[in-house]
Design goal:
292 residues, alpha/beta, 2-enoyl-CoA Hydratase, Chain A, domain 1
Length: 292
C-alpha cells in the first residue's frame, strides 16, 4: 500500500479512500499535496482492485484552500523555490497546481466521490468540481474566495463550475467570494446530498458499494470518459460516434455476456474484464489535450 506525506490512503473491498491529512492546517493545499494527489490517482487507476474512490478530509475541515504560510507572496510563482516551480512546470510553462490536480481527476478511470466533511474554500472546493458525485456534511462550508484575495478562479473551475451549477450561480459565487453553507450548495446543484457529520462517510461508502457490487468496471470507465468529455463537445454527433464505437467493442466482450447471463439467471454478476487491459479506444482520431 503506498504512503503519502499529506494524504492517508487505504483500499477496502474495492473502495479506495483518499483523506487529505494536514489537520493542523485545516488540510491546506501545498505543493506536496498536489504531488501526492496526482500520485494517488495514478495508484487508483493502476489498481484493478479499486472500483471507486472516495476523497475526504481529516479533522474538522475538508481543505482550507492554499496554504498561506508564505504570506503576501503565497501566489507569487517568482518567489517560490526552484523545486516548487519545477513541480508545476509543463512544456516550459508554469501551470496552476490546482489545475494539475483537477485535470488528473478528470482523466480518472474510476468514479470519484467527494465526501466534504467541513470547510472547503479556494482550491478546497475547486478540486471537488472534477469529482463525479459530491456529498456534504452539514458542517461543510464552501467559498470561491479568489476575488477577495486579488486572484481569479483556478483549477479549471471556469469550465467545471458553470457546467455543474450554470453561469449565473457560478458568477454570483465567484463575484462575491462569500462563504455559503452546504444547504445552499445542495439547493444550487453543487452537491448531491447533505448528511449529518457521522452519516457522511457511510453514505459515500454505500454509494461506492452500489457501484462496485453491480457494475462492470470497464463500462464505468468508458461511461465516465463519455459523460465528462462530451460535456464540451460541439455537436451530439461526436457522442454518437464515440458511444457507437464503445457499444461495438463492449457488445462482444466477456462483460456483456456476463451482464446478460447473470441478469437472466437472477444472480450477482462476476465481470471478467479489467480496466488495465481491456479498455477499448472509442475516440478514433480524437485526442485529449496533454496539458497535465
Amino acid at each position: 500500500m503506498p504512503s503519502f506525506e499529506t494524504l492517508l490512503y487505504s483500499v477496502e473491498d474495492g473502495i479506495a479512500t483518499i483523506t487529505l491529512n494536514r489537520p493542523d492546517r485545516l488540510n491546506a493545499f501545498n505543493t506536496q499535496m498536489m504531488n501526492d494527489l496526482i500520485a494517488a490517482f495514478d495508484e487508483t487507476d493502476g489498481d484493478d482492485a479499486v472500483r471507486a474512490v472516495i476523497v475526504t478530509g481529516a479533522g474538522r475541515g475538508f481543505c482550507a484552500g492554499a496554504d498561506l504560510a508564505a504570506g503576501g507572496d503565497t501566489f507569487n510563482y517568482d518567489a517560490r523555490t526552484a523545486a516548487d516551480r519545477e513541480a508545476r512546470m509543463r512544456e516550459g510553462v508554469q501551470r496552476d497546481g490546482g489545475g494539475l490536480v483537477t485535470l488528473r481527476i478528470f482523466d480518472s478511470l474510476k468514479p470519484v466521490i467527494s465526501a466534504c466533511n467541513g470547510p472547503a474554500v479556494g482550491v478546497g472546493v475547486t478540486m471537488q468540481l472534477a469529482m463525479d458525485i459530491r456529498l456534504a456534511s452539514t458542517a461543510a462550508r464552501y467559498g470561491f474566495v479568489f476575488a477577495r484575495r486579488g486572484l481569479n478562479p483556478e483549477a479549471a473551475s471556469s469550465w467545471f463550475l458553470p457546467h455543474l451549477v450554470g453561469v449565473q450561480t457560478a458568477l454570483e459565487w465567484c463575484y462575491t467570494g462569500r462563504i455559503f453553507p452546504a444547504a445552499e450548495a445542495h439547493e444550487r446543484g453543487l452537491v448531491r446530498s447533505v448528511h449529518a457529520p457521522d452519516d457522511l462517510l457511510p453514505a459515500a461508502r454505500a454509494l461506492a458499494r452500489e457501484i462496485a457490487d453491480n457494475t462492470a468496471p470497464v463500462s464505468v470507465a468508458i461511461t465516465r470518459q463519455l459523460i465528462w468529455r462530451m460535456a464540451g463537445a460541439s455537436h451530439p454527433m461526436e457522442a454518437h460516434q464515440a458511444d457507437s464505437r464503445g457499444i461495438q467493442a463492449r457488445g462482444k466482450s466477456g462483460d456483456a455476456r456476463e451482464g446478460v447471463t447473470s441478469f437472466l439467471e437472477k444472480r450477482a454478476p462476476n465481470y471478467p474484464d479489467k480496466v488495465s487491459s481491456d479498455l477499448p479506444d472509442i475516440w478514433g482520431h480524437w485526442t485529449a489535450p496533454t496539458f497535465r
